[in-house]
């Protein structure tokens, strides 16, 4: 497979346009950097084009459905990509952070496609990398950005790591997230 296929180039464009007004929490960094980073992390463990595309579009239905709907996603990239993205979309009908998090973990552990777990692993690995980058700059004020406490984040990332190891086994990404989780426990 070509490194940058027409479908993958199309997904890059869709992600950039859909998230054009979206920035990373508290930093002002364009959100697309996160999506590219997730795709890059995924590329280290798979060449599956659908997985790479779903990695680029994993937050689209959750964060910017007004810019790119499930119907558009399926028409442009197929039912499998849509299914992977849906597997990664949190249920925002649940009012509390903990309830949404537990429902997401339960789905990831027991119902989600294995490749969706791999995408979640890349997503959470990059999120945790970003937390450490931001913590270096602003210190403990970092936690004010979140709807969850430092302790809840420590629990969350540890649970994601546990589920990822159980579902996809050990690989570069599970090892990387495991090391980041250990560092987070020390913050």
Automatic annotation (TrEMBL):
Protein name: HD domain-containing protein
Organism (species): Corynebacterium efficiens (strain DSM 44549 / YS-314 / AJ 12310 / JCM 11189 / NBRC 100395)
Highest taxon in the source lineage: Bacteria
Domain called HD: residue spans: 31-128
Coiled coil regions, renumbered to chain: none
Gene Ontology molecular-function annotations: guanosine-3',5'-bis(diphosphate) 3'-diphosphatase activity
CDD domains hit by this protein: HDc
Record-linked Pfam families: HD_4
InterPro entries reported in the protein's UniProt record: HD/PDEase_dom, HD_domain, MESH1
């Amino acid at each position: 497979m070509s490194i940058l296929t027409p479908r993958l180039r199309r997904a890059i464009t869709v992600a950039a346009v859909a998230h054009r007004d979206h920035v990373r929490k508290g930093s002002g960094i364009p959100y697309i950097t996160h999506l590219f980073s997730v795709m890059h992390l995924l590329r280290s463990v798979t060449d599956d084009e659908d997985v790479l595309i779903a990695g680029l579009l994993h937050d689209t239905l959750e964060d910017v459905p007004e810019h790119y709907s499930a119907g558009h996603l399926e028409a442009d990239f197929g039912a499998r990509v849509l299914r992977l993205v849906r597997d990664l979309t949190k249920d925002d009908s649940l009012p509390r952070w903990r309830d949404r998090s537990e429902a997401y973990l339960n789905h990831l552990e027991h119902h989600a496609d294995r490749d969706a777990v791999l995408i979640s692993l890349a997503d959470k690995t990059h999120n945790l990398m970003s937390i450490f980058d931001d913590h270096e700059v602003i210190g403990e004020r970092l936690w004010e950005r979140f709807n969850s406490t430092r302790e809840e984040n420590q629990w969350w990332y540890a649970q994601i790591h546990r589920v990822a190891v159980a579902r996809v086994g050990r690989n570069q990404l599970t090892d990387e997230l495991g090391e980041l989780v250990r560092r987070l426990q020390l913050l």
